Amino acid sequence: MATNKGRTSSFSRNFSAAPTSSIPGLKYGPNGTIFLSSGVPDLDSGGFHLGSLVMIMEDTEAPHHMLLLRNFMSQGLVHNQPILYASPSTNPRAFLGTLPTMLVSKDDRSRNTDAEQKDLRIAWQYKKYLGENKPHIEERDGKVEYCNEFDLRKPIEKHLIMGNRVECISLLDCSSLAGFRNSCSKFLSQLPRYDGNITSAGRIAIQSLCAPQCEYFDKEWDMLSFIRSLKSMVRSSNAVAFLTFPASLVSPSVSKRWQHLADTLLSVKAIPDEDKELANLLTGYQDMLGLLSVHKVARFNTQVPVILDATTYSIKLQKRRSLVLECLNQAPVDGSSGSSYGTSGSCSGSSKTGTLDF
Amino acid sequence: MADAICRVLRDGALEGEHATSLTINDSVDSPFGPIVFDYIFTQLSSYISSGKSQSRGVVLVAFSRSPSFIVELLKSRGIDITTTHEWLRILDCYTDPLGWKERLKERGAIKTPSTEASLIVNLCKDVRNLDDLFSLIIALGKGLVGEGKNRFSVAIDSVSEMLRHTSLSSVASLLSNIRSHAQISSVFWLHHCDLHDMKTAAAFEYMSSMVANVKPLSTATNVLRENSENLSLLEQNYKRGQFHASLKRRNGRVRIMVLPSFSLNMYTCTHHTQAHIQCSISAKKCEEFSIEQSLIKFTSLSAGKNETAQSLVPKVSFRHYRIYPFMSFFYVQHNSGYMFWQVQFNLQLSDKERSDRAKVVLPFEHQETGKSVQIYDGRRSVTEGKHVSSIEKLQKQEDPGRGEIIYFRDSDDEMPDSDEDPDDDLDI
């Protein structure tokens, strides 16, 4: 799902120019699909399919799923998309104060000088979807970008979370999931899908659906049937449902069923701290917070599978503020002491590293 | 190791964060969870009573031990009992958890037992109502530290007892409410993980920022497969064990600490059991501390003494991946299936390999040792009989484990006394 560099081949289909979406935050994709941004630029090779169910398998030892959730919700607020947020806390609205704001980089002003180079990059990247037309994506001068970068150190502007833009539900109040299902149904009824033009799109964000403090925690089949009904409701509406759950807290068979229900399935993993072996194995270990793995990517209106360049990415914070995903890179092969093979030139055996001792 | 955990509990939580929480897991194979709990409780109490911690007081929810045990424990650790009313409250869920004695008292069947005067103990008569329990805990805590920004800690001994009376989701809800309360600095609890299913243990780990596992030094199945002489290892399980801890750091990484062995010397006194805890820290630094007569002493161990720890070091594996060195390939597998291949050709010789190589006798007839060496060339010669003794001596000089080069001359293929000139095929 990260940018596929160098995937264009001479045999790529010549897509007819797809209509550029007039609605900010939506993008037309191949096979009649529409995309919604995930809020993480590295995760958006298109985005999330409208009408899909995205699931994140949490790691109980790390809160990385919250980074993805925050970016997802902030992106929706920036694009003025209605959001339904549910979490197992007594006051879910307090979470909105932790959503990040858009990153305004200093390079924005100087972008125009690099426009030509940038345009090439954009055109090449999105050629698969939009043919010869240069997309309106990433326009400057005050127009809305499809996918923004977010500054995790600063909270979102208050005017974006005021009012009724975000509906918050506490999962602790739901003794069974029937009430929550009704709330979702009511939310999605505002965003029906017709064959005509889309007027708006919405987002549902559910955090830690099977948290142990919820009353329905023991009712695994109820949770499964809720997810099935959510998936079917979302499929027939203009919304994306983003759901995180700690997979280790449900029984393995139910967890598998849960994973199968997802259209797009990601998982996050914690990494051990101060681990020398991992530091030797991977470059950039010091900056890594965790690992993100893509298990499944949604396929709508197509039988062609999405083949990714890599399925595991490292989660990093660039300059401690914006979320980036990078492919894993192996550290250079080295001898015993960590310097790379090419550095030592002598074969006399005087230095310890990288010498060939015949 | 345990001190590191105590320090994290002492430092508590930042503003807006959930309270630091610790789960102590043990099992019947290594049932030292209560002793570890006591150790951490007394450490935290000493920090609190001396004013060195974020929290100003601690509320102990006692399910499995009576308040009088707590008093004795604090006394044995040298903590002044008379000042406990300033920083300690005990919620007694041990004496009458379901209110049966209360009903008997009403009928006059039993009398109220006396409690230590200096200790403030509140009795809980219905542990099934966790909402009331939560309110009681908060009320006790606020009674200790007052309103406002002052914080207190909560210790629960143990959640396994709670789960006997209520469901997991209500216990989890209680713990989650405790963690998210603004005035609670840290909370820790004991959990006997073999009494419950995996889901329960996973749920408690989910809610903890630190997990401490008390494990046996060797499992019974391992021992039985080996010699019966190694049954002493089973006995060791009653005195020693392994202590694993993992801390969730704020940056999302997990710090894993392993203490390959800790040992306990248990002996019973007239009224209570006093436990000595010895912890040995492995790898680069060996440290042992023992508690004798309520005093902790740290002594450093040399590597030779603590061989058990050293031998256990290579077996320690990180939770999230294992390394399998296989010839010259390193294959790193993550539990969930991440695979990283790193092809590394190991061109360095180990010391043993180097010495073996030095001992190999090369098939040169002149070895520069001053005497000629007869290399067996596949032909028995007349002179062989004379040299047999020298060959035998040579062979005896070889170490059994050194490399050999077996060399057969090409001239072996030739029949002796052949008419062919071996140089016929040369075209000069």
Automatic annotation (TrEMBL), chain B:
This is Elongator complex protein 5. The keyword GTP-binding does not apply. GO terms for biological process: tRNA wobble uridine modification. It comes from the Eukaryota. One of its GO terms (molecular function) is tRNA binding. Residues 411-428 have a biased composition (Acidic residues). Residues 384-410 have a biased composition (Basic and acidic residues). Residues 384-428 are annotated as: Disordered. The keyword Isomerase does not apply. Pathway: tRNA modification; 5-methoxycarbonylmethyl-2-thiouridine-tRNA biosynthesis. Belongs to the ELP5 family. Keywords: Cytoplasm, Nucleus, tRNA processing. Its main location: cytoplasm. It is found in: Cytoplasm; Nucleus. GO terms for cellular component: cytosol; elongator holoenzyme complex; nucleus.
